[in-house]
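Workshop exercise sheet. Pairs work together: one partner reads the sequence aloud, the other fills in the structure field after running the prediction. Swap roles for the next sheet.
Pair: D.N. / O.F.
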Amino acid sequence: QVQLVESGGGLVQAGGSLRLSCTASGSISSGALMGWYRQAPGKQRGLVASITSSGSTDYAASLKGRFTISRDNAKNTVYLQMNNLKPEDTAVYYCNLVLGYNYWGQGTQVTVSS
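Structure field:
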């Protein structure tokens, strides 16, 4: 059983920054792919960024340059640094871990005011 606990969401003004964290517990393999997805009201959940255990990253094209994903394998934690936030970044952000199955966190709300 894998549990993902997210933190770091909140309300920020446009142009501001937030850092999300997600810690995995349970039967974790260091080789698991971890990432962040987001879902805005009325829209489908989509990839923000992902990172392998070796540090290879993948980003949604529209977010590359403003968002940075990183991970600490020793802590089973993945981070998402979000800079120059825009109102359209408002969404619930979900942590994801792939280990033969897709595991999801409960989601953390990010609201960017204009």
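Discussion prompt: The two ends are 40 Å apart (CA to CA). What would you look at next?
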